[in-house]
Amino acid sequence: MGRTLLRSLHNKRYVLFGYFNMLYKIEEKNDVFEKLEPVEFKDFSNFGKLEKDLENLIADSLLEVLFEDSKLMPVFQERQWQAEADIYALNEKGELVIFELKRVSADKDAVHQALRYAQDAGQWSYEKLAKKFKEYSKSEVSLISAHKDAFSLEHALEPKDINKKQHLLVIGSAADDSLVSSVDYWKKNGISIDFLPYRVYELGGDKYFEFFALPYDKHKNPCDMKGVLFDTNRSYNENSIWSMMDNSRLEAYGDAKRFVHYVHVGDIVFFSHKGFGIIAAAKVKGEVKAHAGETLYRDVEFLTPIPNSKDSKLPAMPFSEVALKTDKSFFWARTIKVPYLTKTEALSLVEELNKYLKRT
Asked: Residue 220: its pLDDT value, please?
């Protein structure tokens, strides 16, 4: 099934058609759409970017942007001079998802190389994978504990259940027909492998990255109002939450401050306080602002009672209750707890949260 998406940029209109989409400029005359003109697309090499640039862009956006419904937990990225794939992640079952990225047209051995990486990774013991995760995350939390927290599991997986199966995702330019054919060949022969194409467009002086995460076309429209579970930073600063509550703000700090840009005016944010649950909900009403160098924030309007630091008890809806009310498994270990909620889901959770907080 195809789809049609109309976009407007700098008073020009663009339309996107199909399952493997193509962007077309709409030629307009006297307010009548007359014809479609294909828009040239590019890859990272056209802008002098390296494969590492593509890797970092994908890794930094793996959950919050590109794979908002796929529930993946990053384990580590490749290290310089090591024979490794670009990105490794775990799914909810503990299966290893391996990303191999190609910024430009790949040679005939590209998929064979990726298959070798997957074969090697399939031999890794839990201890070896846990060591890689510890080095990557710079955390003392064990891999199985981090996995349990990430997927809100009732019980942690056993070490023997980690990496029992591997899946390979090859990301490359949408124009790389040879790479697509090679992936299709191995897929038909029973290998768990998929090709995820990307394109880069340059429109009106700005660059746009188009990505086709599985299943293609499932991404929510980022312009739509959404609900976002947002971490209060309790792991690093017990007082961060009171800065947000007292000043009616959504804040993020240091390396995580970029996540403030992932919510927009009109979105509903749910303040996720580690060890407690959801303590409040608010509607975003302000643009991104900076404070004290390492802090970005947006002003918000609370939709639930505002917690007070002077109260002896901090009321909160437990994470297990949130998962039950929304029928979703959230990635709790991140600043933004993907997946996002739709407008209807977010408003329903606000109603349930108000009821719950009144009872406590």
From this structure: 58
Q: Strands across the sheet with 206-211, in order?
A: 73-77, 87-90, 96-101, 166-173, 193-203, 206-211
What is the C-alpha separation between 219 and 212, in angstroms, rounded?
9
User: How confident is the model over 278-316, as pLDDT tens digits?
Assistant: 999 999 998 999 988 789 999 999 999 999 998 889 999
Strands (E), the chain: 4-9, 12-17, 22-29, 32-38, 73-77, 87-90, 96-101, 166-173, 193-203, 206-211, 227-231, 249-253, 268-273, 277-284, 289-291, 295-302
Enumerate the H helices of the chain as residue ranges. Answer: 51-60, 110-121, 126-137, 143-150, 177-188, 240-247, 319-326, 343-359
Nearest-CA neighbor of 75 among 122, 140, 135? 135
Distance CA 57, CA 50 (A): 11
pLDDT at position 5 is 46
CA distance 352 to 155: 26
pLDDT of residue 282: 98
User: Who contacts 29 (Cβ-Cβ below 8 Å, separation ≥6)?
Assistant: none
Strand partners, 195: 170
The pLDDT assigned to 184 comes to 86
Q: In terms of C-beta density within 10 A (0-12 exposed, 13-18 middle, 19 or more buried), how is residue 177 classed? A: exposed
Structural domains of the chain, with CATH: 4-38 (no CATH), 47-199 (3.40.1350.10), 227-359 (3.10.590.10)
250-268 burial, b if ≥16 CB within 10 A, otherwise e?
A: bbbbeebbebbebbbeebb
Q: Report pLDDT for 262.
A: 86
Q: Beta strand 268-273 with 227-231: parallel, antiparallel or unpaired?
A: parallel
226-277 tens-digit pLDDT: 999 999 999 889 999 999 999 999 999 988 888 898 899 999 999 999 999 9
Gap between the Cα atoms of 257 and 65, Å rounded: 15
Find tokens 């329903």 and name the residue: 348
Regions of the chain short of the pLDDT cut 50? 1-6, 16-20, 217-218
Q: Are 161 and 145 in contact (CB under 8 A)?
A: no
